[in-house]
Write a structure and sequence with these properties.
With 209 residues, the protein is α/β, with parallel strands linked by helices. It contains 4 helices and 7 strands, in the order H-E-E-E-H-E-H-E-E-E-H. Helix 2 runs antiparallel to helix 4.
Length: 209
């Protein structure tokens, strides 16, 4: 009974961990960019990074000279092309699956079009709204969007346009593991086959020499 309880607790913990969402949050405003790593409620700043204090230099240790190992022959162009040809469908399929799993938790965009020439500002404002009207439906068709807001303005009193953005994309740890297992199960046999073929080619070249 105790074993079943422990197993149940472990399974429950794995399920809960698998539901944790991880991703990236980007904020841009007033020429300042911030990038944070999201892991559940935790946020870790990736950029800008804090300046680290210089570490004291350590005296270089004397190392014994190692004998140079014979270099392996690089893969031929035919082998590289064959490998890419086999991996390309896997990469395309993985990209499609990843796209369906990614969720846009937040997308807030504010753009102000500005120009000293009123006619130019009006034309650019119309082009901007036209581009947004064409591109955003494609985003909604290909990704799950939780919250979003796009606002545009036009300013005839200044020459400098402004932009502010806050966006966050996430997916669950379980989805990452599931996708990783699927991709690995298809990629590893291809890589092992290519490795075996490379070994046999090297052995043939040695025998010929």
């Amino acid at each position: 009974m105790m074993v079943l309880l422990v197993v149940g607790i472990v399974i429950l913990a794995l399920v809960l961990v698998g539901l944790i969402r991880v991703g990236v949050q980007v904020e841009y405003a007033q020429n300042r960019l911030e990038v944070r790593l999201l892991a559940g409620p935790a946020k870790i700043t990736l950029f800008p990074r804090k300046a680290r204090k210089p570490k004291p230099r350590k005296k270089p240790k004397r190392t014994k000279a190692k004998q140079a190992k014979p270099k392996k022959a690089p893969p031929t162009a035919e082998e590289i092309f064959a490998l890419v040809k086999q991996l390309l469908p896997v990469a395309i399929e993985a990209a499609g699956q990843l796209r369906r799993k990614i969720r846009i938790d937040a997308f807030y965009l504010d753009i102000t079009v500005a120009s000293a020439d009123p006619a130019k500002a009006a034309v650019n404002y119309g082009r901007l709204n036209g581009a947004i009207g064409m591109l955003w439906p494609l985003v909604e068709q290909n990704f799950k969007v939780k919250e979003w807001r796009i606002r545009t303005w036009v300013d005839f009193t200044t020459e400098h346009p402004t932009l502010s953005l806050r966006a966050a994309v996430t997916l669950t740890i379980g989805q990452i593991i599931s996708l990783g297992i699927r991709v690995a199960s298809r990629v590893l046999p291809i890589l092992l086959k290519q490795k075996d073929g490379s070994k046999s080619r090297q052995e043939t070249q040695k025998e010929a020499v």
